[in-house]
Amino acid sequence: MRKAIFLIFLRLVGGVIRKGEKNHDYSFNTDTLDSNIINNSQQLNEYVNPANIQYCADTSNFEKMRRIPKVNDTELFNQMNLIQVQLITRHGARTPIKSVKCWEGFYQSWNCDDLTTLFQTSAFHKNTETQTLKFSKHYIKEWEKNLNGTCKMGQLILQGYEQHRINGKLLAEAYFKEGENLVTRSRFKIDFNLRDEIYIRSSDLQRTIMSASALITSLLEEIFGKEETFQNIESLPIHTLDILSDYLFSNKNIVDNSRDLRRLFNSKKFQELIGNHTSLYMELYENAKVKNIRSLWPFDLIDCILTSLCTGNYNKLPAAFFKNNLLERTISAVEKEVSAVYNWDNSIISKYDIGRFLLEIVNYILDVILFTEKKNDEFLNISVLCSNTKEMNDNNLQEIPYLLNLLCNKYESYYAINNGEINIKVPKFILFSGHDTTIIPTLASLDIWDGHWPPYASTLIIEVYYNPFIKKESIGDFSTDQSRLESSQSILPYYIRLLYNGVVLTGKLKGCNGNEICHVSNLFLASKFASLNKIKKDLAVNSTKRSDKFSNKSLSHANNSNQKSKKFDVNSSNGIYNKSYSHYFFSFLLGALTSFLVMFLIKKLNLLRSIFKDFDLSTNAQIN
Prior knowledge:
InterPro entries: Acid_Pase_AS (IPR033379), His_Pase_clade-2 (IPR000560), His_PPase_superfam (IPR029033), Histidine_acid_phosphatase (IPR050645). This protein is an alpha+beta fold.
């Protein structure tokens, strides 16, 4: 009897929940990407040509698509001296980062025998040095529940290695080698003392470290020649941090964005976006047989799709992806939702995530400016400029130009540390080997991201220039008048050019007004929020409206307007979404009350049974 009552209780609770779900209906959204994901029509169950998918960065057309353009303005091409290049990359093509069942019938097998990781250890103790042999790292074939081969999850594969070797070649041609592909008339000149010339920074993961190694090796082989490179360069340091404390990517261990994420997920705009995609979720569930879409959406599912599309792995996408543009619509929906997160509220989440990293970028630019000023015997002007800056600060006048503030702080710091002697060493070429979650928040925080997922082996380049042909004004007699001090920036002829995957983005940066090359102060102003600590709200956001919070009543009203549409709930416990489903709370509350009532009735029945135990209840046989 208790079992029967318990089953009735489950049916009651299930009915309440299903009834609650019916109030959460959404309309169908037919939006697709601005450009087709797949350019050529494909037959069902056949491989899609990776060359037709921009995300894949296929090596067959990689060099053509990623070539770094020269400075377009002829006068600037002849005048500008390139003094520093900072390169931010995403690792190359890799295996899936998780072992999940993406859809019914999904099977994957990844083998990495064609790409070997080598390591060698040395130890130093006083005057004694010991060294080990060079070892190669091989992954034992995984169990079936993993990748079914000799690859580690998230491991760089041969295709990714080749992508970054091409990147190295393109960088050498653009900045180091004489030839028609130089970005300006002057080129970088470096020697084999590379520890002072090149700085390499990477997250402490196999795919980023090997991507950096492939790129730098190819770069040096193009500059010096393969034989000379291996004869003269024994090793180079790659600088890393513990993965739990690394700020090279969006890292929840060092930045707590939970409060802002809750605000975002409860906002009217985001709820509407999710609502517009709900029919797509249902289509994936029913037609593509993505049965565990709750846990896969969005990151794991997009990883399943793109690692399948971009490699020679023999698993194929379900045929449903090639009907009614489901593949394009799925990728578009993921991009729209991720873009909504990183661009929301003046990109505040991006700024929180990437602020420390951008501060490192800014500091390297400041260093190269001071290095160039010292090299050109212009430190006297810097000293006078900074004394004027200090006087303005002391007089509590309006904020001075941000570049001058940063530059003078750096100048005075070096001056104090070295007892009046300023010795500056700064690398010419800086590589940051990171992830998609390095590039996305960096672009979004500067308000120049197009909303599309970074392809494998993406490159974001910051070129820093000095223009010696601009006549420097003397600042010895500059007053502390604000307008005069602002105009003193003209004595600092330093400029930047930003490129993303071979496309110039400088003109999109605020203050650059569409120009290919722009004064460096505009980059500093755009990254003013950058800090070692959690950034302040007023620095991250110019104007923030917090009127997006929705009450349960307004959410219910919005949902009831679409009661004839299909419904599907996507609650990703592993993804970025942690939505507030208040109607589920009330449903389960009602279920709990029902349970309490049923248990109360059971006790009453037991009491009645004890009272009437001496009576003959023969009618029970008929009832049962």
